[in-house]
Each structure stands twice: as structure tokens, then as C-alpha cells.
Amino acid sequence: MEKEEFKVLQKVQDLMVYTYPILTQFPKAERFSFAQDIRHCLNELLEYTIEEDKRYYKKTTIENMDVTNEKLKKYIRVAFDLHYIDKHRYAVWEAKVVEIGKMIGGLARSVSTKPKS
């Protein structure tokens, strides 16, 4: 399972690298509010990924990761609806977030099916 956790961490870091330049192109009025909310979600997702790797009881942390990932998906959709990003960026950005969501789901399944020792 360690490999899967490392992959999630790498994907989150890649998502951050992809996202930050996009946020600098948001309208000036939104850079310190809406863009900041997206940054906050990304930072939380990174923190939860690191916590999940280090904690013994992982279920709550994985649930928090999933909720934060869902928030991020909604923010990206709103950014697209407000025309802050074009269709291509939306598709790429959304695909990255969905991929992370699938990996989080895999982690959740592996934790919930673990035999109790």
C-alpha cells in the first residue's frame, strides 16, 4: 500500500504544479478570494496525503482527503462556468482531480477491507 500512497502524493504535487500558474491568470478581483480558496483546497489535500501516510488510523484522514478533493472539483467547475478557464484547461484539470479521486477511493477500499489484527 505504500506505493499507492506515494503515487497519490506525487499526483497531488503534480496537480499543484499544474494549478498554480492557472490561478495567476484569474481576474485580479478573484486572485485573492476564489483563487485563494482553490489554493487552500490544494494545500489541505497535500497535508491530508502526508498525514495519511504517517497515521496508523487512516480512515478519517482518507475521508477528509475525499471531501477536499470533491470541493476542489466543484471549485474547478465554477471557474469554468465563470469563464476563468477554457474548455481544454477544464478537461485537463478535471481529469487530474478525478484520477486523484480514484486513487483516494482505492485507499479507502484498502483500509475498509483490512483484516483487524
Compact summary:
The chain has 117 residues and is mainly α.
Molecular structure report:
- The protein is 82% helix and 0% strand.
- 24% of the residues are buried.
- The chain has a single domain (2-112), classed as 23S rRNA-intervening sequence (de novo design (two linked rop proteins)), CATH 1.20.1440.
- With 117 residues, the chain is mainly α.
- The model has no long low-confidence stretch (mean pLDDT 91).
The CATH homologous superfamily: 23S rRNA-intervening sequence
* Multimer state: single chain
What does the overall shape look like?
elongated
The Cα radius of gyration reads 15 Å
Overall mean pLDDT score?
A: 91
Helicity range of the residues? over 70%
Strand content: under 5%
Write the CATH architecture name. Up-down Bundle
CATH top level label: Mainly Alpha
Largest sheet: none
The tally of domains stands at 1
The fold-level CATH name is de novo design (two linked rop proteins)
Uncertain residue segments = none
Could you outline the blueprint of secondary structure elements for this entry?
Elements: H1 2-23, H2 28-31, H3 34-54, H4 59-81, H5 87-112
Helix pairs in contact: 1-3, 1-5, 3-4, 4-5
Features:
117 residues; de novo design (two linked rop proteins); mainly alpha
